[in-house]
Amino acid sequence: LSGLVLLLVALPSGAAPPALETTQANYQLLPDEQRFDGLVEAVHRSAISAQTSGEVVELPFDVNDYVPKGALIVRLDDKLQKARLDQAVAREARARARLVEAESDYRRKQQLYKKKVLGKAALENAETTLKSARATLELSQAQLAQAREQWDFTRVRAPFAGVMVERLVEIGERARVGTPLATGLSLEKLRIQVAVPAYYASHIRENLQARVQIPGSTDWLESTDITLFPFADPLSHTFTARVRLPDGQHGMYPGMLTKVAFLVGRQQALLIPDTTVIHRSEVTGVYIVDNTGRIHFRQLRIGHSAPGNMRVVLAGLEEGESIALNPVAAGIALKKQVKTASHE
User: Fold this and answer.
1) Residue burial 210-243, b: 16+ Cβ < 10 Å; e: rest
2) Which residue of 85, 226, 241, 287 could cross-link 147, Cys pair, CB 3.0 to 4.6 Å?
3) Checking phi first, is residue 267 left (phi over 0); if not, alpha (psi -120 to 50) or beta?
4) pLDDT tens profile 271-303
5) What pTM did the predictor assign?
6) What's domain 78-153's architecture?
């Protein structure tokens, strides 16, 4: 403690405060964006219908449930389809056996014909039987594939991962071909639909670049997959733009509103570091250090954020003016400056 006291006493009472670190306000070329409200939509929304007949015996998912891709959503009674599949399997096996028999008979008669023990007519009959056996096998294979497909249709699976919006049947109901079963939408593939004023349509079409704000967050998603309709709405005189989001879950759901910023050109903007800006009640400003080293508080009109933790200045500052990088230290120095001036 005595050493600390001696150190404090040894410091000159009139020592100047350390110089403040400053930076200069400079103009930079920034993207010129226009922001509009957009509606989140699902790219994939489908109504699933029955492709075979049968009684509904299982419904694993309810409305608003998340359904993985390929998951079973409806199962129909498959007794009839399974019986037809078993019959098709038996017919295909029988046809295959007949073909093996016909091939063996044809080879045997071909050898006899070469030895001139068998007439040509008998060989031709064996060849005709072989061709018929091959055609019968092909027909039975096609019938087997059809029967297997009909049996597969009794198990309706989700074509994509998403949410079940509607369930249109209940257990015990009989579904026929074409009966609507369920409606679902994908949460992995989303887009934003935006009404764009006609003035900006050509600029958006020229740049085809946009950012979408995640609702409830300061994060933005980049997108270059933009479709601008080639015609305007005759009532609102606006063009419809669709902005496709990157695949995946981003905390957005169909029906939500969000902000979409379209690139419409480039503009010069006066930038300062975001950390130099301070807020005093309803006043926003920075500390300016002039050429003589004196500190002043300057009220500013601040715009939107810019890349690199920068902030756009709309009014109140000129290019080249020096700004204190540490507003806390600058505030303390300003108080000392005012106190010194009052004593003088």
Assistant:
1) bbbbeeeeeeebebeebebeeebeeeeebbbbbb
2) 85
3) beta
4) 999 999 998 888 999 999 988 888 999 999 998
5) 0.60
6) Orthogonal Bundle (1.10)
